[in-house]
Amino acid sequence: MSKKTMPENSEPGTGTETGFCTEPGLEDLGAMRRLLERTGVFSAEEVDVAESLIRERLERGIASEYHFLLDRRNAVLAGFICYGPIGCAPGRWDIYWVAVDPDFHGQGLGKALLHAGEQAIRAKGGERAYVETSSLDRYTPARALYRCCGYTVDAFQRDFYAMGDHKVTLVKILDGSTGTSSAPISNAPTSNTSEPDVSGPDICGPGISGPNAFGPGPNIP
Ligand SMILES: CC(C)(COP(=O)(O)OP(=O)(O)OC[C@H]1O[C@@H](n2cnc3c(N)ncnc32)[C@H](O)[C@@H]1OP(=O)(O)O)[C@@H](O)C(=O)NCCC(=O)NCCS
Prior knowledge:
Layout: H1 26-39, H2 44-60, E1 67-73, E2 76-85, E3 92-100, H3 109-123, E4 128-134, H4 140-148, E5 152-162, E6 165-173
Parallel strand pairs: 3-4
Antiparallel strand pairs: 1-2, 2-3, 4-6, 5-6
Helix pairs in contact: 1-2
The structure holds coenzyme A.
Coenzyme A (COA) is lined by residues 39, 41, 98-100, 105-111, 133, 139-142, 144-145, 148.
């Protein structure tokens, strides 16, 4: 199957220059729930959380600070991304959700949504985009997506979600620079012997969930 980078059949007149729709509608509540359930990745509680974001957006509009890009193919929601600014951290944005319906996996839609989200964040003055994900195997495609789009691991919290289910935070500097602080944050791999090697080539591979995937673990009091 050939790769595509832009959605086809997006609703006319509702998109931005990216071609994605920026205005969620009531119909997206159910469509998003269906999509997330169909991925088989998220718990019922996580699906409820996702639904609460879109509900808040529908109720409060852009004041909710939840921004969406949606790829609708006729009546079907093929994929979406949701992002917003991080409070009290100028220029820092969170990408809360990115998900693609299994019928559209492997066609470049996840990459296109992420890319369009980054462009939109930059256009609003964003400098860094953060994503949080889990170390579990079922999130391997997500980690691979982030990695292939230039995200690097910035933080690792062992057993954060549950025992053996670690939280991995990745960052991408959107202005293309390597950052200005002396802290080892950049889109290039870093090395720090007191912390786990979370920047190596295998970080996003299936081995991430293995018990020793991150070495002895961070030295956190
Ligand atoms: C993660 C997800 C959004 C990827 O969407 P997608 O449209 O299938 O991804 P793309 O086709 O754009 O793939 C982009 C890159 O991601 C990586 N990737 C995607 N699926 C992958 C898989 N199953 N295994 C390994 N790498 C994968 C590849 O590097 C791919 O680039 P390539 O095709 O040039 O090798 C999709 O799998 C999904 O919705 N998963 C469930 C939801 C989820 O986990 N969201 C993230 C929550 S933290």
